[in-house]
Specification:
With 344 residues, the protein is α+β, with helices and mostly antiparallel strands. Helices cover 39% and strands 27% of the residues. Strands 1, 2, 3, 4, 5, 6 and 7 form a seven-stranded antiparallel beta sheet that branches. Helix 6 (208-215) crosses helix 7 (217-234). The structure holds guanosine-5'-triphosphate (GTP). InterPro entries: Diguanylate_Cyclase (IPR050469), GGDEF_dom (IPR000160), Nucleotide_cyclase (IPR029787), Rev_trsase/Diguanyl_cyclase (IPR043128). It is an enzyme of class 2 (transferase).
């Protein structure tokens, strides 16, 4: 009992999803004597469910987060038939045996009718009723606490991640190791055009003040909610979408080539342009985007994307502009001073 209480105190002492995952799997691993415990992220891409390990601990090991190494959403749900059944039937748990002969228990973390995460416990001998009861209790605490964390990390109007979480998510992307790493003074490798990079895009609604002035703030708010929905449906599950405040949004695109980033961003711009906004009619957005370099601070990276956005605004709006391309074309200039940059 002491051990359970100690784990509960640890789990509820965190203000961060990753640390919560780590403390939950550490607790389950120790209290159930499992061979392995994981948090699985469940995402839906084009109507298909995918499963990816988000955090893992093995017997005798230390719990650690698992960052995706590529842009794939993970393994198709077909590789987890018992879990697929469990999700289809909105069940609280499912058991099965893996090809390694070990027993597995899956407990989805349900929020209403959606489960975007699941606890997976692997055990050599299987699970007795006491273990299942104890783990189910931990899952309930986990779910409630995740709910609280979500509430503090999300913008109340659109449900998107808020500004507060941006630095952390950007650091995580850089930590994943696949951001372009340049030493100070080292020239950018422009010849690697097909190279996968991380991207940051700043999105701003065009003439949004006019929407508020003509139709009122309630319709303005609805436009923001619909644009947030279009952002979420246009970008991939592994990308991150934030509302920075007002009518400005920021997207972090994970591991993709310049051509793909351009295509995905322009598809979103065009989705907004062709959307019929109730009462308001047509709304457009301008976008500035740039590649993320591990050596640049978040302020510098945001500044680059902002410069490209201002260029888009000053040159017709309803367009997406790439910072590096504008600099290369002599349309924007930048003078770097230590960790910051000044623009002309
Ligand atoms: N309805 C609503 N309006 C907001 C919110 N936050 C900021 N705004 C309004 O957004 C408008 C932003 O206007 P501006 O910064 O002048 O920019 P703009 O009219 O979009 O013009 P451009 O960016 O130059 O295309 C202001 O009128 C703000 O009051 C919000 O949460 N809801």
């Amino acid at each position: 009992m002491d051990s359970l209480l100690r784990h509960m105190v640890d789990m509820t002492g965190h203000r961060d999803h990753t640390m919560l995952d780590i403390s939950v799997i550490s607790a389950v691993q120790e209290l159930s004597g499992a061979t392995q415990t994981r948090v699985l992220a469940i995402s839906t891409v084009c109507g298909q469910r995918f499963v990816r390990s988000r955090a893992c601990i093995r017997a005798g090991g230390v719990a650690c987060p698992e960052e995706p190494q590529d842009s794939s959403p993970g393994e198709p749900i077909a590789a987890f038939p018992e879990l697929a059944w469990c999700l289809d039937h909105h069940a609280s748990r499912a058991e099965g045996m893996g090809s390694d002969g070990l027993r597995r228990l899956w407990l989805p973390i349900w929020f209403g009718d959606k489960a975007s995460a699941c606890l997976e416990i692997t055990h050599a001998q299987g699970f007795n009723a006491d273990t299942v009861h104890m783990v189910s209790g931990i899952v309930s605490v986990y779910r409630n606490f995740q709910n609280l964390l979500d509430y503090s990390e999300r913008d109340s109007l659109t449900g998107l991640l808020n500004r507060k979480t941006f630095d952390d998510q950007l650091a995580r992307m850089l930590h994943a190791g696949d951001a372009e790493t340049l030493l100070p003074g080292q020239p950018e490798r422009r010849h690697h055009v097909a190279e996968e990079k991380q991207w940051l895009a700043v999105v701003d609604v065009d003439h949004f003040k006019l929407v508020n002035d003509r139709f009122g703030h309630l319709y303005g708010d609805e436009v923001l909610i619909l644009i947030a929905n279009l952002l979420q449906s246009s970008f991939r599950a592994q990308d991150r979408v934030f509302r920075f405040g007002g009518e400005e949004f920021v997207v972090l695109l994970r591991s993709t080539t310049l051509e793909n980033a351009r295509r995905i961003i322009d598809r979103f711009r065009s989705n907004v342009e062709s959307h019929e906004f109730p009462q308001v009619g047509q709304v457009t957005v301008s976008v500035g985007f740039t590649s993320i370099r591990a050596t640049d601070s978040p302020v510098v990276t945001l500044g680059h994307a902002d410069q490209a956005l201002y260029f888009a605004k000053a040159n017709g709006r309803n367009r997406a502009c790439h910072y590096d391309e504008l600099v290369a074309g002599g349309l924007l200039q930048t003078i770097a001073t230590n960790d910051t940059a000044e623009f002309f």
